[in-house]
Amino acid sequence: MKLTWLGHSCFVLEHDDYRIVMDPYKGVPGYPTLKVQANEVYCSHTHADHHAIELVTRLPPRKNPFKVREVRTFHDEQEGAERGGNIIHIFSANDITVAHMGDLGHHLTLEQIEAIGPLTVMLVPVGGVYTIDAIGAKSACMALRPRCVVPMHYRHAPYGLPNIGDLDAFLKLWPKTSVHRLDGPVLDLTTDLSGVYVPRFDG
């Protein structure tokens, strides 16, 4: 299984030649226009920086090898009154489970934690303002205890929303030995992963 970061909160998840795109974006400062192919698209909510489905070219339909679950959460701390709802998508195949947390904006409840269940990989927003911040993201990771954490939705100049935080505040909350900076945007997913993995955006 392979995970590729396309910037912001957008990833491609591939297994058995089946491609899923999560949260395709448009209008995010610094990033070029997104161009990606996929068999299926999943979006956490309908804001343009997470729901640019028109920029995804659909591949021929075929059976989805992933088991897909949804856990409904909120984009803010007021149960959606400020920014609406947020869907956490959970994809499972070949003994690996990946959760895309979308624009999670609040601490998870016990019921939500139980519904999400055990994770291999957790894709979590860390930039704050529109989502949980670095401390909130670490708290969510401690609650769910995934084997592998991949941060998303942060500013890394010249890329990203200008008023959200960068990655440093989140990484400082982890032991240095558990942080792995990748040479590119791709992470091969196995059950042996451990720690925080930071893909590099290739532009």
Could you walk me through the main structural features you see in this protein, from its secondary elements to its overall organization?
The protein is mainly β and 203 residues long. Helix content is 11%, strand content 33%. The chain is built from 3 helices and 14 strands. The chain has one domain: Metallo-beta-lactamase, Chain A. It has a 7-stranded mixed β-sheet with strand order 7-8-9-10-11-14-12, with helices on one face. The chain has a 5-stranded mixed β-sheet with strand order 5-3-2-1-13, with no helix packed on it.
Order of helices and strands: EEEEEEEEEHEHEHEEE
Beta strands, count: 14
Strand content: 25-35%
Structurally, the number of domains stands at 1
CATH third-level topology? Metallo-beta-lactamase, Chain A
* Helix and strand composition category: mainly beta
Q: Spatial order of the strands in the main sheet?
A: 7-8-9-10-11-14-12
**Biggest sheet details:** 7 strands, mixed
Provide the CATH top-level class: Alpha Beta
Identify the CATH architecture. Answer: 4-Layer Sandwich
Which of globular, elongated, flat, extended, rod-shaped describes the shape? globular
Can you count the helices? Answer: 3
CATH superfamily: Ribonuclease Z/Hydroxyacylglutathione hydrolase-like
